[in-house]
Design goal:
The chain contains 13 helices and eight strands. With 316 residues, the protein is mainly alpha-helical. The protein has a two-stranded antiparallel ribbon with strand order 1-4. It starts with 5 loop residues before the first helix and ends with a helix.
């Protein structure tokens, strides 16, 4: 019997390799169809693929070193909180989700008029972050003590660090400040712009509604022109005093620039966060001669040009 030729040997080897390849594909297909339980939101720590697989295995995910090889071969493994989207899926879908799922996002909201002090406190609780670190990084990135982060709802990746969060919030807001300044003023001069933001922050605190904002803005501008002290309680609702009723004792004892009863002009920094409407009112106040306003029984304000009218409104 003749020995197989070299050509026949190559055919046999090739045929065996094809058989092995298809066997591997079949086994792999069955393997990737194995059901696996997962949480909808999965945390992936930073590190190498083997470290991540070890972390998942220790946290009751049915993964092994072979899965790590596949992840390493097929794609880049993300870190952070990922939204896998399902709790029961195949191993193939789970591994694909680790490589391709979007970050799990959480909404944080800064309401108009709120101060950085309370915003940081709420964010720290909501995202399980360190409030002292949040404040530290805000001071590092922001040019003013308050009012830099605009009132808005922000979508934040779960698991974000204090440093990255404050960098994102401050820089996102500063870009908006610049855009609004160019829209309203034709240029962005930071000192000039934040003077308007400071006025807007007082308008935000003092106004009963958005319709009143241009009127409150007019009172502030009119008083500044006449070199009258603003004498507005809202300016003293800064920082941790945001929700405290201003008392005569506080007015007597507060020596900060926020005390517009004691000092002329506006504070050195915004009182709190501002909305677009408040900034509009600071730049474009109503064309009126009002110098005074007082809250009325309807929960809004009565405005007046003279102190005599103001006293009459005060007694109503």
């Amino acid at each position: 019997m003749n020995a197989p030729s070299i050509k026949d040997k190559k055919k046999i080897i090739f045929s065996n390799l094809v058989d092995v390849f298809f066997m591997i594909v079949i086994v792999l297909c069955f393997y990737l169809q194995i059901p696996i339980n997962s949480s909808r939101i999965v945390y992936i720590p930073q590190g190498g693929t083997n470290e991540i697989i070890t972390y998942l295995d220790k946290n009751n995910f049915d993964v092994n070193r072979f899965d790590g090889y596949m992840l390493h071969f097929f794609g880049y493994l993300q870190s952070g909180w990922l939204n896998i989207g399902q709790t029961r899926l195949t191993k193939g879908d789970f591994l694909y989700g680790l490589m391709n799922s979007k970050a799990a996002l959480e909404d944080i909201t800064l309401i108009p008029g709120e101060t950085l002090y309370f915003f940081i406190d709420e964010v720290a609780k909501q995202l399980n972050l360190d409030s002292k670190k949040l404040e530290l990084f805000y001071r590092q990135y922001a040019p003013y003590e308050d009012g830099v982060i605009l009132a808005n709802t922000y979508k934040i990746p779960k698991g974000i660090s204090e440093k990255h969060l404050m960098y994102y919030l401050v820089n996102t807001s500063l870009k908006e400040h610049k855009k609004w300044a160019i829209k309203f003023l034709g240029e962005y001069d930071q000192k000039q712009w934040f003077r308007y933001v400071t006025i807007a922050s007082i308008i935000q605190k003092e106004s009963a509604n958005t319709e009143e904002m241009p009127l409150v803005g007019a009172v502030i501008h009119n008083r500044l022109k006449l070199k009258m002290r603003l004498q507005m309680d809202g300016a003293l609702n800064y920082g941790r005093f945001s929700h405290i009723k201003v008392t005569p004792e506080m007015i007597r004892n507060d020596t900060t620039s926020y005390n517009t009863y004691r000092y002329n002009g506006i504070p050195n920094a915004p009182v709190g966060s501002v909305s677009f409407k408040a900034i509009q009112a600071a730049i474009f106040p109503a064309n009126v001669d009002y110098l005074y306003f007082v809250r009325n029984k309807n929960g809004t304000h009565s405005f007046s040009k003279t102190y005599k009218e103001h006293l009459n409104n005060f007694s109503q």
